[in-house]
Amino acid sequence: MADLTERSSCEATTRMLKKASEEDHSTAFSRAEKMKICAIGDSGICCRNCVMGPCRLTPPKKEGDEPKRGICGATAEVVAARNFVRMIAGGTSAHSDHGRAVAETLILAAKGGAEGYRIKDRIKLIEVAADLGIEVGERTSEEIALEVGRKCLAMFGQQEGEIEFALRAPEPRQEIWRKLGVFPRGIDREVVETIHRTSIGVDQEMENILLQGTRCSLADGWGGSMIATELQDILFGTPTPVKSKINLGVLEEDQVNIIVHGHEPILSEMVLLAAQSEKLLKRAEEKGARGINISGICCTANEILSRHGIPIAGNVLQQEMAILTGAVDAMVVDVQCVYQAIGELSQCFHTKIITTSPKAKMPFALHIELHEENALEIAEGIVEAAIDNFPNRGRVDIPDVTTEFIGGYDHEYINYMLGGKFRASYRPLNDGIIDGRIRGVVGVVGCNNPRVPHESVHVRVVEELVANGCLVAMTGCAAQSVAKTGLMSPETAKDACPQGLYEICETVGIPPVLHVGSCVDNSRILVALNAMVQEGGLGSDVSDLPVAGAAPEWMSEKAVAIGNYFVASGVYTVIGVTWPVSGSQVLTDYLFKEYEKIYGGMWDCEPDPDKMVGKILSHIDKKREALGILGKRERVLYDMAARRELSIE
Ligand code: NFS
Question: What per-residue string of b and e applies to 189-224 under the rule 16 or more CB within 10 Å gives b?
Fold first, then answer.
């Protein structure tokens, strides 16, 4: 393998990669190196929606050549559009099935039928109920929660009308959606219709296919993902800032290490609870362990970090690295972003992979299915299996690498910390943007991808954005990458950002980079953007705001769904790595340029981190100019050295 520091900027990861290479274990990094990228598939112009082909619609070799057509006659832009919206449907289905599971658990908890789950956040419950037009009155939390849960669950099967959370968007935005006919009706309906319309011989017009893609993605951001976030807050508590640490060094040599990996806190919350049981702690002691240590990987990690400060072992590309330490007694997984490779790799170590969802099984894993009715009891069984595996450890190799950071920011807390308890508001944020101390706000989200240097693209993008006065909000594995740099600690703000941004960070007590949770929590960013519009002074719609979105190291189709709902909500969104439909210039131009006229937000792709930052800043400045605030410069405070320099001039 090439120089390992070129593969990842994370020290713990490179140490484990070295071990993997010495001991001849394959990892996503080594497999990516061997896997040749298929240029046709990579550019999104291969159609295999029927078996007359597969049809590969490569561009004409020379000028004057007829563009290739599929056997059914499909053009490259139609094939590429189908592939693009199918990615949206895939991503939407993942986030939404997650949201559905939370709604079902909330209903069960409200009925008293889900052991271990209860309504934890009544304030959030009442807020959500109000948004859904549900009467609160003198009713108990359980009565309200039952109606909230049922109403949210009904949004999945809704056949007509408008899904209610989307009514939180600014009025002008809703009007755009209504005029275009893309207001989502029901979540499942939009996913099904997207798959139907892109099957052989149905929707043959690129623009029309994309409209359905938009409707589907909005059903994700303002539907499934928002349901997941809101109902999780009700069940498990709305996050507030918590101190924690990240990286493989959070594993403990003398404790039972359980890693929860995947996405749904329905599982991880119960594992956490079970690990506190006196009986199990005693059992761990009997097996020679000093305690039970829980940490997380991927978005499950973000969920339990935000609500409990549980440390993060790593992001998606570190799941194999964790097993390579030899210190993980059980890796408990549910759904999404779990590599099949961990099953086989676990055979070389003592690690038990425990699958828990009927939707996701894998070879070489122990399956202990989680049922909400008796989840706590099942979770105790899972923890017990991990404890009993502790004595089977071989050599342990934990890289002593961790970084402290603060997580758990969300719309509610930002509102409170900016305005105070009795006058919660976004005013100071909007004022900071208007007077130029904050240049803009950028959401940097998404995955890690071994096709680009692990974490270093994220880090470069975010460092540069902060250095240029942008406040950054992060979710997913992207957030975990940057948490390792110290940029998520308020103390680092002084050196990392210009004076204006620093003053705001210092006054409010926040770092310049905010960890706002998991990928479904991108819905928190939508809510925050809406709050900025409502606060006033920055235009009347999200598309007027000096903001942008980026997914520099994305890999999952979930990132395409997220990107598209941000674009359709009015946000300029740029992705790195690769543009998945680059094979059709017609489609690319439509998404990059025409979309701006339609939605005010548009797609872009830029793998180079510095160029990506340049594009984001020029978009932000364009929006500042339109608002008439471009000229406002941040106030520069000169130190003595700078003054002397001035007087020499
Ligand atoms: Ni998001 Fe979370 Fe990570 Fe990417 Fe996977 S964990 S839902 S998809 S890889 S950020």
Answer: bbbebbbebbeeeebeebeebbbbbbbbbbbbbbbb
Q: Whose CA is nearest to atom 4 of ligand 1?
A: 447
From 92, 315, 519, mutation site for ligand 1 pocket: most ligand atoms within 8 A of C-beta: 519
The mean predicted confidence, pLDDT, of the chain is: 94
| pLDDT for residue 70 | 97
Domain 248-392 matches domain 410-627 at the CATH topology level: yes
Predicted TM-score (pTM) of this structure:
0.95
529 lines ligand 1 (CB under 6 A): no
Residue 337 CA, closest ligand 1 atom number: 5
C-alpha torsion angle, residues 206, 209, 213, 216 (rounded to 10): 170
Question: For the segment 199-225, what is each residue's pLDDT rounded down to a tens digit?
Answer: 999 999 999 999 999 999 999 999 999
Q: Is the CB of 10 under 6 A from ligand 1?
A: no
Region of 116 (left: φ > 0; alpha: ψ -120 to 50; beta: rest) is left
3-state SS, 438-449, equals CCEEEEECCCCC
Q: Which H or E run contains 404?
A: strand 403-407
Query: Could you tell me if the CB of 476 is within 6 A of ligand 1?
Result: yes
CATH class, range 410-627: alpha beta
- At residue 528 the predicted structure's pLDDT band, cuts being 50, 70 and 90, is very high
Is the CB of 563 within 6 Å of ligand 1?
no
Cβ of 519 closer than 6 Å to ligand 1, yes or no, is yes
175 to each of 60, 399, 538, 598, 633, how far by Cα in Å? 40, 53, 19, 12, 34
CATH number given to 76-236? 1.20.1270.30
Local structure of residue 250 (DSSP, 8 states): G
Q: What's the CA gap between 489 and 502, in Å, rounded?
A: 12
Q: CA 280, CA 289: separation in Å to the nearest integer?
A: 11
Ligand 1 pocket: which of 96, 316, 474, 557 to mutate (most atoms within 8 A of CB): 316
Over the stretch 69-114, which tens digit does the pLDDT of each residue have? 999 999 999 999 999 999 999 999 999 999 999 999 999 999 999 9
Pairing relationship of beta strands 46-47 and 55-56 according to DSSP bridges: antiparallel
Sheet of strand 366-367, all strands in order from the earlier edge strand to the far edge:
366-367, 352-355, 330-333, 256-261, 292-297, 312-314, 242-246, 403-407
Could you tell me the distance, in angstroms and rounded to a whole number, from the CA of residue 275 to the centre of ligand 1?
25
Residue spans of the domains in the chain: they are 4-56, 76-236, 248-392, 410-627
- What atom of ligand 1 comes closest to residue 520's alpha carbon? 7
Q: How many CB atoms lie within 10 A of CB 46?
A: 21
Instruction: Answer positive or negative: Cα dihedral of 562, 563, 565, 570.
Output: positive
Q: Which of 259, 336, 515 to mutate to test the pocket of ligand 1 (most atoms within 8 A of CB)?
A: 336
Q: For atom 2 of ligand 1, which residue has the closest CA?
A: 299
Question: What pLDDT is stored for residue 550 in this prediction?
Answer: 98
Q: CATH assignment of 248-392, given 3.30.420.40, 3.30.1490.20, 3.40.50.2030, 3.40.50.2300?
A: 3.40.50.2030
